[in-house]
Amino acid sequence: MRCPFCGYEESKVVDSRPIDDGLSIRRRRECLKCEKRFTTYEKVENIPLMVIKKDNRREPFNRNKLMNGLLRACEKRPVSLNDLERIVNEVESSICNTLEREVTSQQIGEMVMEKLKKLDDVAYVRFASVYRQFKDINTFLVELNKLLQDT
Amino acid sequence: MRCPFCGYEESKVVDSRPIDDGLSIRRRRECLKCEKRFTTYEKVENIPLMVIKKDNRREPFNRNKLMNGLLRACEKRPVSLNDLERIVNEVESSICNTLEREVTSQQIGEMVMEKLKKLDDVAYVRFASVYRQFKDINTFLVELNKLLQDT
DNA sequence: GTATATGACACAATATATTGTATCACATAC
DNA sequence: GTATGTGATACAATATATTGTGTCATATAC
pLDDT of B22-59, one tens digit each? Predict the structure, then answer.
């Protein structure tokens, strides 16, 4: 593994211990060039993907729930089911790739909105109005104004 | 490493590849009991801890900058330098522990505010007023009203 | 103060991971 | 349509990681 200090491409493991009851492995590595040491963690890709909701409760990530929100936002809009599947897939895999076990519903909303914005303005604003409704009414108005000005 | 499917404590590596230009290692593992396969990633702990600012530019995380913000918020308030050091330490290490390479300035602000709120209401609102000034004026007012009602 | 937990470190004996080469499947790009 | 990139898979030869034991330092708990 590449050294995070000097960038040299080889390092060796000097210690390796299971942690989290065996669910992860912590390694101490040493750069073969600059000899600096650093810690790495090996973790399982995804499995327990939890969403932190606004009231701080946790629940498992649910593709269908996200898809339903998207379908509602796209009602009578020229967005294909394929596009929506793609968005859900991309969001899910980008959450998995962070290797985080938890993600806030807000972060998910932001990711979805970023992608939806490129597809359909109206669907984007509908979706945003649900995700940001209580926290950020001004932002919603600002977004609406931006869209009005752009057209 | 423990199997995420059946929970058995031993698995073997069936493939191992460097990714991200050598910064991480992806491994395919197979459980020695149920023989199911899963993917793991080994990543460096922290090092390039970058903050994503509001305008989407990145800059390295800077303890001093955060501390300055806290000091300004706590001017003439009964909050010790020790407490502030503790907050900065806790925020920094909780960012490191996520193993994410990037974090938004907003996320940092939220973490700080959560901790500051427990220490001093006035410092909390001062800090919040800086972190949320453009995005969330309503939230700021709501917070002020909450504090006024609580006292 | 003592007790407890955790991370870093070292050493030695053993077991296992790594790397290149190559194929297949799938999805995206043009 | 073809080209391109990526993840999963297999195999074989080689190199390296893992695990137990034990110490030390630091921080937190009581």
Answer: 888 889 999 888 888 888 888 887 544 567 666 666 66
The one-letter code for the residue type at B73 is A
> Does residue B25 approach strand C to less than 7 Å at its CB?
yes
Residue of A nearest to B1 (CA): A22
Q: For strand C, which nucleotides have at least one atom less than 7 Å from a protein CB?
A: 7-11, 16-20, 28
Distance CA A142, CA B107 (A): 22
How many Å lie between the alpha carbon of B107 and the closest alpha carbon of chain A?
Answer: 10
How close B126 comes to chain A (CA, Å)?
19
B67 three-state secondary structure: helix
pLDDT in tens, A90-140: 777 666 555 445 567 777 888 888 788 777 777 787 777 776 654 445 665
β-pair type (B24-31, B50-52): unpaired
Residues A28-77 pLDDT 10s: 999 988 888 888 888 887 544 567 776 666 666 777 778 888 888 887 77
**Which chain A residue lies closest to B106 (C-alpha atoms)?**
A107
Judge: A136–B139 Cβ closer than 8 Å, yes or no.
yes
Residue A39 in contact with residue A33, Cβ under 8 Å? Answer: no
